[in-house]
Specification:
The chain has one domain: Rossmann fold (3-Layer(aba) Sandwich). It is built from 8 helices and 7 strands. Strand 5 and strand 6 form a beta hairpin.
Length: 224
C-alpha cells in the first residue's frame, strides 16, 4: 500500500444550501488537490458494475445503508492514489463517529494534517435560497428566483418549458433536512475538537463565493 508523504486533508462540512459544493470546487483550485465525494465514488462503482459496486447495489436494494467499514475502505483506497500526495478535500465523509475515528487514524498514518471546516449559513437564508430554486423539467437548468431568475417568470430561457419546484426544495422538507444535518454534525464536530484537530467555523453567508474561498485558503495555509 502506498503511503502519502504529507499534505493536508480538508474535511468540509456544510448544511444543504450552504454553498458547500461551490466551495469544494474553488478549494480544489486553491489547493491543487482532488475533491473526494463518497457519494460520487459509490455511484461510480455502481455504474461500473465492479465487485464493490455490486456489493453496494445489493445492500441498497435490500434497504440497507452502506456500512462504515465499506465506506472507510473506499476512502482509504482513494486517498492512496498519487493525486492525493499533496492533499485532498473530503466531502460527505465522515458521517458517523466510527468513520471519523477511522479517518483520523488513516490521516495520522500518512502524516496528513486534517483541517475541519464547517461552512455556516443562517438557516433562514438557507430556506429562502433553496425554496427559491426552480428547475426546468426538460433540460435540467436550475434557476434562483433571487439571484438567477429566468428572463420570463416561470419559464425556462432555453426551451420555454414551465419551471417546477423540486419536492426536496419545499420548505417543510428543507427544515427536516437541516434538522437531520444538525443532529448528524454536532457529535462529529465535538469529536474533532476534543481530538485536537484544527476546526474552524466559517461564515458562508457574507461575501462572494470567491471571497469565502480566499478566507478558507488562508486558514488552510496557516495549518500546514
Amino acid at each position: 500500500m502506498a503511503v502519502n508523504g504529507g499534505g493536508s486533508a480538508v474535511i468540509l462540512f456544510g448544511s444543504p444550501g450552504s454553498g458547500k459544493g461551490t466551495q469544494a470546487k474553488l478549494l480544489r483550485q486553491c489547493m491543487q488537490a482532488p475533491h473526494i465525494s463518497t457519494g460520487d465514488m459509490l455511484r461510480e462503482h455502481i455504474e461500473a458494475g465492479d465487485a464493490l459496486g455490486t456489493q453496494v447495489r445489493a445492500g441498497m436494494q435490500a434497504g440497507m445503508l452502506v456500512s462504515d467499514e465499506l465506506v472507510n475502505r473506499l476512502v482509504e483506497d482513494r486517498i492512496d492514489r498519487p493525486d492525493c500526495t499533496r492533499g485532498f478535500i473530503l466531502d460527505g465523509y465522515p458521517r458517523t463517529l466510527q468513520q471519523a475515528g477511522a479517518m483520523h487514524q488513516l490521516l495520522l498514518a500518512r502524516n496528513v494534517v486534517p483541517v475541519v471546516l464547517h461552512l455556516q449559513v443562517d438557516y433562514n437564508k438557507v430556506i429562502a435560497r433553496l425554496s427559491g430554486r426552480r428547475l426546468c423539467p426538460v433540460c435540467g437548468t436550475l434557476y434562483s428566483i433571487s439571484s438567477n431568475p429566468p428572463k420570463v417568470a416561470g419559464l425556462c430561457d432555453k426551451d420555454g418549458a414551465k419551471l417546477i419546484t423540486r419536492e426536496d426544495d419545499s420548505e417543510s422538507v428543507i427544515r427536516q433536512r437541516l434538522e437531520e444535518y444538525s443532529l448528524q454534525t454536532q457529535p462529529l464536530m465535538k469529536y474533532f475538537r476534543e481530538s485536537g484537530v484544527s476546526t474552524f467555523d466559517v461564515d458562508g453567508s457574507e461575501g462572494s463565493p470567491q471571497t469565502i474561498s480566499n478566507k478558507i485558503c488562508g486558514l488552510i495555509s496557516r495549518q500546514v
